[in-house]
Amino acid sequence: TSEMDAKKARTEAAAPPTLQREQVYDKHGLERLAAIDKQFTQLFGSAPAFFARAPGRVNLIGEHIDYSGYGVLPMALQQDMLVAVGFNDTDTCHLHNTFPKFTPRTFPSVSGPIDPSKHDWGNYFQAGYKGVLEHTKLAKPRGLNILMDGCVPQSAGLSSSSAVVCCAALATAHANNIEISKLQFATLCAKSEQYVGVEGGGMDQAISFLAEANEAQFIEFNPVRGVPVPLPTGAKFVIANTLVKADKYVSAGSCYNKRVVECRLAAGVLAVKLGLQAPLPRTLGTL
């Protein structure tokens, strides 16, 4: 409908909103923020200047087809990744995590190359950070102090890793007074997450930025775009965690990326068999 088209256009063109914490979180969430605030102050000697958040997601229709360019229907979750951010007077970003197993990381504010062979949690934050710098051609970003927290279950297929990338991009843009639209954020984060060595599609990043309350999003690609799909009134979704972990950032080369290549090879074979103008790739490198 014309009303849905207008809403879609407004959503894609708008920048992510800046809200008061009470507008986002209930009592439990506010207690979580207070604990993060306290830990940040203990680490860096001052309170955070702001928080940035990005939700996880669950996919309703279309598993593992976004990286082949096909449409998907995800919705965002209440569970999110969250960063508290402050400033420092150096050319360095100091990255900490509330979970002790994720040890602190430091990287230059100009953000050098990311080594995809090193399966490190900090690479995901740095990927989102680097994506904003490249998109805006920002030459002198501010030094940042960062504390990350998350309640998206890890390695559970709910896109905790992509939420880190999106959260990092939001924090980087806000810290440097840069305004980027939701659609631009979704596009640049889909591209920059590939710096960690995962050949993913753009579903996770798109829903993280384009999601609206009580709606799923029908997301298409090349270029990225989303159409809001209202969820049935009163509908309940049960998202069950099997507790079997799939560490995508560890198995990217052997499992996840292999499936991407297999899909592209299959598409090439079908194109030849059907007489379409899409020759098979000559080398695996072109995949």
Q: Which range best describes the helical content: under 10%, 10-25%, 25-40%, 40-55%, 55-70% or over 70%? A: 25-40%
**Structural class, from helix and strand content?**
alpha+beta
Order of strands across the main sheet: 1-2-5-3-4
Number of helices: 8
Oligomer type? single chain
Number of strands: 7
Rounded to the nearest angstrom, the distance between the terminal CA atoms is: 38 Å
Estimated radius of gyration: 19 Å
Give the helices and strands as they follow along the chain.
HHHEEEEHEHHHEEH
Major sheet size, sense and barrel closure: 5 strands, mixed
β-sheet strand percentage? 15-25%
Overall pLDDT: 88
Unreliable spans are none
The outline comes out as globular
Short recap of the structure:
By secondary structure, the chain is of the alpha+beta class.
Question: What is the secondary structure topology, with strand pairs?
Answer:
Blueprint: H1 2-13, H2 21-24, H3 27-44, E1 50-61, E2 73-88, E3 92-97, E4 105-108, H4 121-136, E5 143-150, H5 160-175, H6 182-192, H7 203-210, E6 215-220, E7 225-230, H8 248-273
Parallel strand pairs: 3-5
Antiparallel strand pairs: 1-2, 2-5, 3-4, 6-7
